[in-house]
Amino acid sequence: MDNDYLDSVAWGPDGLVPAIAQDAESGRILMVAWMNRDALARTAETREAVYWSRSRRKLWHKGEESGHVQRVRNIRLDCDADVILLEIEQVGGIACHTGRESCFYRELDGEDWRVTDPVLRDPAQIYR
Amino acid sequence: MDNDYLDSVAWGPDGLVPAIAQDAESGRILMVAWMNRDALARTAETREAVYWSRSRRKLWHKGEESGHVQRVRNIRLDCDADVILLEIEQVGGIACHTGRESCFYRELDGEDWRVTDPVLRDPAQIYR
Q1: Hey, of B78, B88, B100, which one would you mutate to test binding to chain A, going by the most A CBs within 10 A of its CB?
Q2: In A1-128, which ranges are continuous DSSP H helix?
């Protein structure tokens, strides 16, 4: 049967699983989004990250607006088959819609979330 | 107000958010689990990873049975405040219940998920 690797994934009740994008070189975690069956199939076929946008309720080819596509080097699955890990090359070096490299730009410092990462590019310049 | 860093998290409708554990040295992603408010508070206080077990419906101090606790060096939050990232030191070098370093021990190879990581210790020896 074709595509039975898609059947091996334990899709949630909403048909989705979380997908982590990790920079293949630095190991930095850049973002977490969601995938459905179609998104994973297209990601595997095109070798560029395609997610499911829960807010827009449609497939989202990451970088379609910003140009910041994610070239996929490797796709991993966890032991419970309900989380996907993409090892990627982040074109433009910016994964976050805030214009930062990573969405994880805050760390807990005592009782506060402290911003640790600079904005590399003004989002108004990215999404024109 | 105490603990308002907990109020900054966009807890899901079930009161949970995903939490990624990443090896602070190697950058490897070891596992993904879930946290509720209590789990994050205890993790921040004790500096050892505490998750919410969805199957057992209770707090889960990672390593409570196996001894494979996770010493937390840093706690990060993403831009949407709905994913937590723990940078940890994995005691025993095994995060996965299968006895492997990482839960992400399979990668997509053509149409198959191929196991890439060895079992470091028989689970029967870990969970006695």
Answers
A1: B78
A2: 4-7, 37-46, 123-126
ipTM of the complex: 0.94
Identify the three-state secondary structure at position B124: helix
Q: What angle do CA B103, A75, B27 make, to 5 degrees?
A: 55
Q: Are A52 and A59 spatial neighbours (Cβ–Cβ below 8 Å)?
A: yes
Instruction: Collapse the DSSP code of B53 into the 3-class scheme (helix H, G, I; strand E, B; otherwise coil) and give the result.
Output: strand
What is the torsion angle, in degrees rounded to the nearest 10, for the CA atoms of residue A5, residue A79, residue A63 and residue B110? -30
Looking at every residue in chain A, the average pLDDT score rounds to: 95
Rounded distance, CA B51 to CA B59, Å?
Answer: 6
In three-state secondary structure terms, A119 is: coil
Instruction: Evaluate whether A76 touches B112 at the Cβ level (below 8 Å).
Output: no
Cβ atoms of residues B35 and B16 within 8 Å: yes
Q: For testing the chain B interface, which of A85, A97, A116 should be mutated: the one with the most B CBs within 10 Å?
A: A85
The tokens describing A58, both together, are 């449609």
Helix (H, G, I), strand (E, B) or coil at B48: strand
Q: Do the Cβ atoms of B108 and A76 come within 8 Å? A: yes
pTM recorded for the entire structure: 0.95
* pLDDT tens digits, B50-75: 999 999 999 999 999 889 999 999 99
Q: How far apart are the first and last CA of chain B?
A: 43
Cα separation, B3 vs B1, in Å, equals 7
